[in-house]
Design brief:
With 252 residues, the protein is of the alpha/beta class. It has helices spanning 4-13, 31-44, 61-64, 103-115, 135-144, 158-173, 194-201, 221-227, 229-251, and strands at 16-23, 49-53, 72-74, 77-79, 82-83, 86-90, 117-118, 122-128, 148-155, 177-184, 205-209.
Length: 252
């Protein structure tokens, strides 16, 4: 049976130019901070950006992108709320309590959430994936097919790399487009040289992010970037690298 929701969703996604999935396989490596930071930075550069929080169990968006009003209905679907210039999507804006879900329920919720939204025209959709290699990753990958670009976030430690490496191998097996790797807290964890990380994860190093002890002093991603200029410079450098890679891909 044809799922009409998917047909609706496919039509809406036609107006999305670039889809970037940010994953790691490992929790606690700073993936949500990074994906929200590049979303904000791209928006400040004049791009139309949507940050999509796909972690149904521990959504980060309500803290990183606080909103003044919930989503409201419109002619073409639910209008996305905007926070600091970024359109935001998260189940965290709709629910306060726990949300126990099994595999099929997660996929159905994902389809329902995206198909009922008015995404409009977007230059970038940044997908913040939960830890692991579950339905949020595999279904979204099938949904976007060859349009999706992937950024992996890791720490330079064996505990992190052992997990991220499995995701990198899956990306290679599935012949997905890996934009590159971001090494977080690079001055805190130094087990390997960057060229060794590049070889092990089979991808380009997009850049490194230092450990910023005051990052948690500020709630929203806007506050973090405005109050920590070194962090903002690192994010901007990686964002520019991503833009250059995407531009070079389009020109070939």
């Amino acid at each position: 049976m044809i799922d009409l929701r998917l047909k609706v969703l496919e039509r809406k996604l036609e107006k999305v130019e670039n889809v970037v999935m940010v994953g790691s396989g490992k929790g606690g490596v700073g993936k949500s901070i990074f994906s929200s930071a590049i979303s904000y930075t791209l928006s400040k550069k004049g791009y139309d950006v949507a940050y999509v929080d796909l972690d149904f169990y521990g959504p980060a968006a309500p803290n990183l992108f606080p909103i003044e009003r919930p989503m409201k209905g419109g002619r073409d679907g639910l209008e996305l709320p905007t926070s600091n210039g970024v359109k935001v999507v998260s189940i965290g804006y709709l629910l306060d309590g726990p949300l126990p879900l099994k595999g099929k329920d997660k996929v159905d919720l994902l389809i329902d959430l995206l198909s009922t939204l008015n995404l409009g025209s977007l230059n970038f959709m940044i997908l913040d994936l939960p830890p692991g290699l579950g339905d949020e990753f595999t279904f979204t990958k099938r949904l976007f097919q060859d349009r999706v670009k992937i950024v992996l976030v890791t720490l330079n430690s064996e505990m992190s790399l052992n997990v991220v490496e499995k995701l990198a191998k899956y990306v290679k097996i599935e012949k997905l487009n890996l934009l590159g790797i971001v090494v977080n807290m690079a001055d805190l964890f130094k087990e390997y040289r960057l060229d060794q990380l590049k070889s092990r994860l089979n991808g380009e190093i997009l850049g490194t992010i230092s450990y910023h002890s005051k990052l948690d002093y500020f709630r929203s991603i806007e506050e973090k970037l405005k109050n920590l200029p070194d962090f903002a410079r690192e994010i901007n450098s990686i964002t520019e690298r991503i833009l250059n890679l995407l531009n070079s891909t389009c020109s070939t």
